[in-house]
Amino acid sequence: MAVEFRDYYEVLGVQRSSSQDEIRKAFRKLARKYHPDVAEDKASAEEKFKEINEAYEVLSDPDKRSKYDALGANWKHGAEFRPPPGGGFEGFPGGFDFGGGQGGAYEYHFGGTGFSDFFESLFGGRGRAASAGGGFGGFPGAAQARGPRKGADVEADLLVTLEECMHVSERTLTLQGADGARKTARVKVPKGIREGQSIRCAGLGSPGVGGGAPGDLYLRVRLERHPEFRVSGSDLLHDLDLAPWEAVLGAEVKIKTLHGTAKLKIPPGTSGGTEFRLRGQGLPDGKGGFGNLFAVARIAVPESISDDERKHWEALAANSSFQARG
Fold first, then answer.
1. Which of 153, 188, 200, 266 gives 128 a disulfide partner, CB atoms 3.0 to 4.6 angstroms apart?
2. pTM for the full model?
């Protein structure tokens, strides 16, 4: 079954030959524009932000990018795409394919995970155990002869925002079986959940055989990339852009954190790469407290200047005794 192809390079506005640094800069620029906290149209911005995140999730990961690039450069955004054999869901978009007790297939679709069907078809989950009845070659009565058996456990990726990590939150998933019947499930996302951890949803896997219990669904957490923060355990890292005069003369700057707005005093003579620690401004640490936020100073320079500004910079260059290189 075909899904809509997504051109991740087009989404980020970069070339297929772009470096990782160029991809990171493109993501950061777009993410700052479309992050729901700052966008005017929050509803449309949320969908756009997820699309940007998905593109960056793939293109910033060398393994995922290599697999994606192997599809070729001739695909166009929105074109009909059929996942290759052996893909994440054996050709089913956004779902899992399990052998049925009578040699059929049980198709499982998920909604609400934060990822598109296209992403899931290439990088999504897969059965963690033998499929229900899959080892019997479809012979009628073979599964029943073995008695009741539990259905297969399955996995899926769940995109979680950093804001959701700050407290216990809930997500609504939609699950659709091969018969088209849909059901919804409320999933609790624990406070302080980390990248790569799994959330077990009992009984939401594939159906059992011969009266056996259904399998479980395991949601593997993928933390949404934030335009301002990088995650390191319970700590956050933030690139703090300083104007040259702020670094030289010192300044007091405001930093928007996940806890609110914090003030930070920049001492005179601050060099690029200097780290400033803001205690307790990170993510939940699992011990009742929070990690730290490290603001890493970066000296920002203007991309273009006016003629009048150029005269001032030239005068400074001519009169300053500072030597950048010994």
1. 153
2. 0.73
